[in-house]
Structure formats: structure tokens, C-alpha cells
Specification:
The protein is α/β, with parallel strands linked by helices. It has 27 helices and 30 strands. Bound molecules: ligand MGD (2 copies) and molybdenum atom (MO). It comes from Mangrovibacter phragmitis.
Length: 775
């Protein structure tokens, strides 16, 4: 007889989710909030839990198991051997101990970057760091892949990172803005998720924006899903990739020429404009950065740039910028120049005016609630040792290649650590890092690599020891929705038991702590199990809530009810204007910058003497772009995908919605297709001197000629090891692994040139989702 089916409420990055189950099998899932938009990511919980790509048992690479002190074989090419949990943990403990004693704490890399699953308890990398703090310290990471350039430059310019801060509220944008520009932003895709759980309100506001009759402009080399959503009401302008600074400079000079800039605002609220004005007018270099100059670089007609200058300055304009354009070489310049342009328009701090760097992410602009905010698991134990060194996330391969090597970061001279052990938990670095073949070569250097994962990712296939981890549906947790709004508190109730031999990260690191020292488990867990921790986090939310006149029901009742709690609105927050206080009284509310004002020329940045990040926003031509491409070369864009979170869910049935010829699609312009004899649906080979991939051709007029897009996150699938053909279309086989600049050291994936041809050889079978050979 069929078992009774029921619904469990849980949540993922992609929002609160209702899962239909009988306690053993997941049947279906759907979003738990009322929204106007289908969020496809919510529909595939069954595929996550029951995927044939799950890691089922602890596994050890054969050549490693044979002689762990002096491993044999090549990572990524060996088969795996199943071992017991006890064998795996004892092996890790012994090797970790040996490596730490020989090489010291900084040789242990636990800076494991990644989007794991949401939840305040089961935070994979945090738990890893908690264990490593107990064991005596580790090397961690600095920054992230998302905004590596912007988050480092913005504090110099406006005193905060801006990318992860609340935006001028949407109700004010809808009321006051006349012109809304989406500059390198594709909210229709990127709002499907948040770092916590998505509150899913952003699209409701974009829906209202669509009906508002305001002037809407998308500036993007690709005609994105967002453009299609707005349809006729949206103007699409497609600059060459990487040329936005030139484009903005052309607009800025036009403002000056026509006296359309707001000099009173510049005088009162900014510093360093005079130096920048000299640059615009070419006082030093003899090059006037006017609309004609800019048009030649960015490929947008000079007349259009002049019209934009007039439009922006004569109307209340909100420049909403996404982050794709700063994931590039010289990425720091993009948002610095955008803020400078907004400063010249003089509308920063007015309702509906200025700029916003997070409307496209985590539903920025959805007003913050009066909330009881959950506490969460911390990455160190009492008396433990935190990170003894840190590596900027996107320079990890250079660190492996160059131990002891000098590098610069944000005004500091630093030295790369000598990494001998890597543990990656909750990240997919074989899809997220640039130049995968270079990564594979550097990845052979450490003495031990451990991956704890739910799935056989590229990193897992290239590890020595792989531990099976539960998905968030196999354990209990809690989360807030809305990174900014704090709109709901959501129970994340276990749906089904752990699959096969999967364990929670919490359990794994608690056990290893006991191996490390007697009483270690007690020290790691503080004597609390999963439910006791959840109750603690809830009680702390209750205490925080009390300070906001929000009271929570008792934990036991809340947990029993299986329902989310919606926090009350805070009417004052729906009137929030970013920089409103500063504008009202800049002396009473100075910015945390070197002058207390918006910094257009920075003495501090200039003092570093970085050629790749000068003292004011500057057009710098990248190493690989349209301007130095050979005739057959194309610029490679790797935007974020509609139906995945990076590499997460690539194995699910959602793949059927986008794959072409069984592979990751590559979007290319009709003219570029014709020139190469490529038709829609063909398999093509895309290559450069770094790597080569097969992909399915998606031919369209919706992308700038000379630019192709392969979305980030498709799983790697090398035919024959390092350097060979990737059968599936993982874009980072092709991207260049260089830092944005010495300032931010951010990811610069969107600065790459490639060639493309129709693939006519016999088609290899895709094995990206097939677990490795094992015995
Ligand atoms: N070319 C190119 N590359 C890019 C980008 C780009 O634009 N272009 N974007 C960059 C950006 S912004 C980002 S944020 C990164 C994203 O890079 P990642 O954050 O590394 O990508 P995810 O695919 O989300 O990887 C999360 C992994 O955690 C695993 N996981 C989930 N839950 C758990 C858990 O509870 N425990 C453990 N142990 N593991 C778990 C998942 O199975 C998955 O493999 O990619 C970057 N890479
Ligand atoms: N569905 C879904 N949502 C996500 C994610 C996901 O993987 N899937 N990832 C999440 C994460 S971790 C992050 S960091 C954010 C990423 O958010 P973003 O970084 O904003 O997303 P991207 O798609 O990389 O880039 C946004 C747009 O910039 C355009 N672009 C790229 N280069 C240029 C350029 O040189 N000039 C101009 N004008 N435009 C350019 C791209 O074509 C794209 O449409 O999204 C988050 N949301
Ligand atoms: Mo990101």
C-alpha cells in the first residue's frame, strides 16, 4: 500500500519551498510564497535528493590509499575505492596531523569558497573552519567571486561596499524615477536566488516598473531575459564587452560640454572632481574623452551617448548596475565611473535618483522589515585559532603555483602561503574558477585534497578523499528570507532521511574534532545537537525581535506548526533613500571615505601606484577584447544562468530546458554563425590557447556580433584529462585567470577571447554527471 503523502516546508537559496513526500521519497516541490513568476529552481528537489550523481559512500582515490604519505597516480584520472566512515576519518586525521606538524597552520587551506546550501546551522565552509580553528588555524580567503572588484573599490569611493547594502526603497523608485537603467544587470535571472532564502519580492517591483511607463534602458552586450520581459518598453544598447568605462566617460564629457552636470553637488558632496575633469578634457594626455572618442571604443554611436547625457540629466534617473561588467580585468573602474557619472548628475541621495548596485541581487530595495533576525553558526571554537593567512579567492591557483611568492592586494604587500592540504566544503571550484586546465595542473601540488560534497562534481572527481554529505532536505535548519528585507523566518524541516551513507557537515567535523583531541567533540558542538543549536539560534532571534517589538511564539510551537513567520512592515523603511542623510547634512553624516565625501580622485589609491588601478576612474584597454581581437576571434561572456545556481542543479531535469544537442548552449549572433557555416542546433567547438569545449549553438540576433555567451556553471567533462576537449561546455576551460587589478584581485572571467568552428568529428558522449570508476 502506498504510504501517506504530506508536505514539508523548507527553504533553499531559491526561496521557501513546499516539498511533497512520504518521508522516504520526494515526489514534487514548489514555491511556498505567492509570486507572479515561476521560479524553476524550486521544482527539482526530487532531482537533488535522488540524483544518480550523488556521492553515496566515503571514497578514496586508489593511488592515494595505496601510500597516503607519498601518493601515487594522478588526481582526476585514478579510480576510487569505497571505504568506511571510520577508515576515511582516521585517514584524514592522520594526514592532516602529519601535514600540519610538518608545514604549519598556513599550509592548511580551508578558505573553501562557495554557495553551499542556505541555513544558519549547516554552513559547510563555516563548519570546516570551526574544526580547523580547533586544530590550530588555517589559511582562509578574502573577498568573493561575485563582486571582487566592486566591494574593494567602493569603500574608497562612498565608504561602504554598496553591493551588499540595502538600496533606495522600490516604492520610491516607482514613485520618483523617470528613467531606470539596468547597466550590466539581468534581474530576471539573478533574482531567483539570495544568499539566505530569496524573499521573491523583487520581480513584483519589476512587474510594476514594467507597467509604469517610465523610460527603461538595458545596457548589455546580450539581449537578456530581462530585456525580453520588458519587451517593447525596453531600449537595448549593446556596447562591446569591457568598454563601459569609455561609454560612461563619453556621456560624462557631454554633460560637461553642455553644462548639464551639477557643479553645486560636485562641490558640496565630492572630492577630486577637478583632477578627473582634467582627464575628461585631456589636459594631460591630449585625448578628450568625448562622445566621438567613446563611440569608437564602445561601439555605441556618439549621437546615442549624447542623447543619454541629455536624458539622464534632464530626468530623475536611477542607474541600477549589476556585476557582470566588474568581473573583468580593471573591473574596479566600472562602478567607480558609474558613481562618478551619478555624482555629475547630482541626484545621489534623492528619492529615485543616483545609483544602486544591488537591485538585481537578493531583492535589494524591498524595504527592511521590523524583524527578529536569526543568529547563526560561527566559524571558530572557544580558544581556537582563526585564519592565520588569507588568499584573495580568485588568486588561489596562483597561490598553489607560487608558494612564498609576493603579491599586492589593496595597498598591502603580501606573500602566498605554502599550501599542502586543501579541504573544500560547499563550493564547486572546478566550475567556478577560471582557466580550469591551469587549475588542474596546480591542483596536483598539495599532498592531500579532501572534498565533502553531495554530488560528484569536477572537484570531487579530482580529490583524494571524497565524503558524502546530506542535502539540506536531509537535515533540520532555519533561515531568514531576504538578505536585506529580513521578511520571513522559515523552518527548514528535514524531508527525508540522509541518502545512502551521507552525513551532515556538522556531524563530520564534530567527529573529526574528537579524533583531533580528546573532548574535541564537546568543544566543537558545545554539547548541543542539531535541534539544540536551532533552538539557540531561534532564542537569539526572539531576543533581537523583542528589541524591535516583535515577539516570537515558543520554539516548540513554531517547529510543530511547520509554517513561516512573516515579519511586520516598517513604514519608515519604505521611505529609505540611500545617501539621504548624507545629502541632507554632509557634515553630520559624513561618508567613511578619506574626505568624508564621494571620492572621485583618491589620494590613497593614487599613493599605491598601481598601473592597473589609477587614482581616478580611467579607461584602460583590457588584455583581451574587441580592440585587439584577431579577425576571427570572439569575446567570451559567461553570464549567470537562468535555470541553475552556478553549477548547482545542472544535473537536474531543468537541463532539458536549455541544453542544445545534449550540451551547454553557446549564444552567438546570426552573422557570426553564418561566417562560420554554423546553424542553430549544431555542435560547435570553442577554443583558445587555454582550453577547448563543445557546446550547442543557439543562434540569435539577441547578442552583439563578436560576442558569444556560454553561461557559467556547466560541469566540466574532459575527454582525456588536462588540456583535452571538454565534451559538455564548461566555460571556465576558456576563461583567463587574471586578477581584476592589484587593488581588488577580483575574478576577471569576462575578459577572454576565443575561436569557434562547427564540430564535424564524431560526437563524444557526455559523461559530466557520471560518477568516476570505483571498486
Ligand atoms: N566564468 C565565470 N566563472 C564564474 C562566474 C562568472 O560570472 N563567470 N561567477 C562567479 C561567481 S559570482 C560565483 S558566486 C561562483 C560560484 O561558485 P560556487 O559557489 O562554488 O558554485 P555552486 O555551484 O553554487 O557550488 C556550491 C557547491 O556546494 C555543494 N553543496 C551544497 N550544499 C552543501 C552542503 O550542505 N555541504 C557541502 N559540503 N556541500 C554542499 C553543491 O553541491 C555545489 O557543488 O562562480 C564564479 N565563477
Ligand atoms: N538564476 C541565477 N541567479 C543568480 C545566480 C545564478 O547562478 N543563477 N548567481 C548569483 C550570484 S552568486 C551572483 S554574484 C549574481 C550575479 O549577478 P551579475 O554579476 O549581475 O550577473 P551576470 O549574469 O554575471 O551579469 C549581469 C549582466 O552583465 C552583462 N555583462 C557582462 N559583461 C558586460 C560588459 O562588459 N558590459 C555590460 N554593459 N554588460 C556586461 C551580462 O551579459 C549579464 O546580462 O547572481 C546571483 N543570482
Ligand atoms: Mo556570485
Amino acid at each position: 500500500m502506498d504510504k501517506k503523502r504530506y508536505q514539508v516546508l523548507t527553504a533553499a537559496h531559491w526561496g521557501p519551498v513546499l516539498v511533497e513526500t512520504d518521508g522516504e521519497t520526494v515526489f514534487s516541490s514548489r514555491g511556498a510564497l505567492d509570486t507572479l513568476h515561476e521560479n524553476t529552481l524550486q521544482t527539482v528537489v526530487a532531482d537533488q535528493v535522488h540524483s544518480p550523481t550523488r556521492v553515496r559512500y566515503p571514497m578514496v582515490r586508489k593511488g592515494f590509499l595505496a601510500s597516503p604519505d607519498n601518493p601515487q597516480g594522478v588526481r582526476g584520472q585514478d579510480e576510487f575505492v569505497r571505504v568506511t566512515w571510520e577508515e576515511a576519518l582516521a585517514l584524514i586525521d592522520r594526514q592532516h596531523r602529519r601535514i600540519r606538524q610538518t608545514w604549519g597552520a598556513s599550509s592548511i587551506f580551508a578558505g573553501s569558497y562557495g554557495w553551499r546550501s542556505n541555513g544558519v546551522m549547516h554552513k559547510a565552509a563555516t563548519l570546516l573552519q570551526r574544526y580547523m580553528s580547533l586544530a590550530g588555524g588555517y589559511t582562509g580567503h578574502l573577498g568573493d567571486y561575485s563582486t571582487g572588484a566592486a566591494q574593494v573599490i567602493m569603500p574608497y569611493v562612498v565608504g561602504g561596499n554598496e553591493v551588499y547594502q540595502q538600496q533606495t526603497s522600490w516604492p520610491l523608485v516607482l514613485e520618483y524615477s523617470d528613467v531606470v537603467v539596468m547597466w550590466s544587470a539581468n534581474p530576471l535571472n539573478t533574482l531567483k536566488i539570495a544568499w539566505n532564502a530569496s524573499d521573491e519580492q523583487g520581480m513584483k517591483y519589476y512587474e510594476s516598473l514594467k507597467k509604469s511607463g517610465k523610460r527603461l534602458i538595458c545596457i548589455d552586450p546580450m539581449r537578456s531575459e530581462t530585456h525580453d520581459f520588458f519587451g517593447e518598453q525596453m531600449t537595448w544598447l549593446a556596447p562591446h564587452m569591457g568598454t563601459d568605462v569609455a561609454m560612461m566617460l563619453g556621456i560624462a564629457t557631454t554633460l560637461l560640454e553642455n553644462q548639464w552636470h551639477d557643479s553645486a553637488f560636485l562641490d558640496k558632496y565630492t572630492s577630486g572632481f577637478a583632477t578627473f575633469q582634467n582627464y575628461l578634457l585631456g589636459e594631460q594626455d591630449g585625448i578628450r574623452k568625448d562622445a566621438d572618442w567613446a563611440a569608437a571604443i564602445c561601439g555605441i554611436p556618439a549621437q546615442t551617448l549624447r542623447e543619454l547625457a541629455e536624458l539622464f540629466s534632464h530626468n530623475r534617473t536611477m542607474l541600477m548596475a549589476g556585476w557582470g561588467m566588474q568581473r573583468q580585468q580593471y573591473g574596479e573602474q566600472k562602478h567607480w565611473m558609474l558613481v562618478t557619472l551619478a555624482a555629475m548628475l547630482g541626484q545621489i541621495g534623492l528619492p529615485g535618483g543616483g545609483f544602486g548596485l544591488s537591485y538585481h541581487f537578493a531583492n535589494g530595495g524591498n524595504p527592511t522589515r521590523r524583524a527578529a533576525v536569526l543568529a547563526s553558526m560561527q566559524g571558530s571554537v572557544a580558544g581556537g585559532t582563526d585564519a592565520v593567512d588569507k588568499v584573495p579567492v580568485a588568486r588561489i591557483v596562483e597561490a598553489l603555483e607560487n608558494p612564498g611568492g609576493a603579491y599586492q592586494h589593496n595597498g598591502e604587500d603580501r606573500i602566498f602561503p605554502n599550501v599542502k592540504m586543501i579541504w573544500w566544503a560547499g563550493g564547486a571550484n572546478f566550475t567556478h574558477h577560471q582557466d580550469t586546465n591551469r587549475l588542474i595542473r596546480a591542483w596536483q601540488k598539495p599532498e592531500l585534497i579532501v572534498i565533502s560534497e553531495c554530488f560528484w562534481t569536477g572537484a570531487a572527481k579530482h580529490a583524494d578523499i571524497v565524503l558524502p554529505v546530506t542535502t539540506s532536505y536531509e537535515r533540520n535548519d532555519l533561515t531568514m528570507t531576504g538578505d536585506y528585507s529580513q521578511q520571513h523566518l522559515v523552518p527548514m524541516k528535514q524531508v527525508v532521511p540522509p541518502q545512502y551513507e551521507a552525513r551532515d557537515d556538522f556531524t563530520i567535523f564534530a567527529e573529526l574534532s574528537e579524533y583531533w583531541e580528546s573532548g574535541g567533540k564537546q568543544r566543537f558542538t558545545e554539547g548541543k545537537d542539531e535541534m539544540a543549536w536551532l533552538e539557540t539560534f531561534y532564542q537569539m532571534a526572539a531576543a533581537r525581535g523583542a528589541a524591535n517589538q516583535v515577539s516570537l511564539i515558543p520554539f516548540a510551537t513554531f517547529w510543530e506548526q511547520n509554517q513561516l513567520i512573516e515579519m511586520p512592515e516598517n513604514p519608515a523603511n519604505s521611505q529609505f533613500v540611500r545617501f539621504g542623510d548624507f545629502r541632507a547634512d554632509p557634515l553630520a553624516h559624513p561618508l567613511k571615505t578619506e574626505t568624508g565625501k564621494i571620492v572621485i580622485h583618491s589620494e590613497r589609491i593614487a599613493s599605491y601606484g598601481y598601473p592597473d588601478c589609477p587614482g581616478h576612474p580611467t579607461w584602460l584597454a583590457p588584455d583581451e577584447w574587441h580592440g585587439n581581437a584577431q579577425p576571427e576571434q570572439l569575446q567570451l561572456l559567461s553570464a549567470h544562468p537562468a535555470h541553475r545556481l552556478h553549477s548547482q542543479l545542472n544535473y537536474s531535469r531543468l537541463r532539458e530546458r536549455y541544453q542544445i544537442a545534449g550540451r551547454e548552449p553557446v549564444t552567438l549572433n546570426t552573422a557570426d554563425a553564418q561566417a562560420r557555416g554554423i546553424r542553430h542546433g549544431d555542435v560547435v567547438r570553442v577554443w583558445n590557447n587555454r582550453g577547448q569545449v563543445l557546446a550547442g549553438a543557439h543562434v540569435t540576433d539577441g547578442i552583439k556580433p563578436g560576442v558569444i555567451c556560454i553561461h557559467q556553471g556547466a560541469w566540466p567533462d574532459l575527454q582525456d584529462g588536462e588540456g583535452s576537449l571538454c565534451k559538455h561546455g564548461a566555460v571556465n576551460m576558456l576563461t583567463k585567470d587574471i586578477p581584476s587589478s592589484r587593488l581588488g584581485n577580483g575574478c576577471a572571467a569576462n575578459t577572454s577571447l576565443v575561436w569557434m568552428e562547427k564540430f564535424t568529428d564524431e560526437l563524444p558522449v557526455v559523461t559530466a554527471f557520471t560518477p568516476p570508476a570505483s571498486s
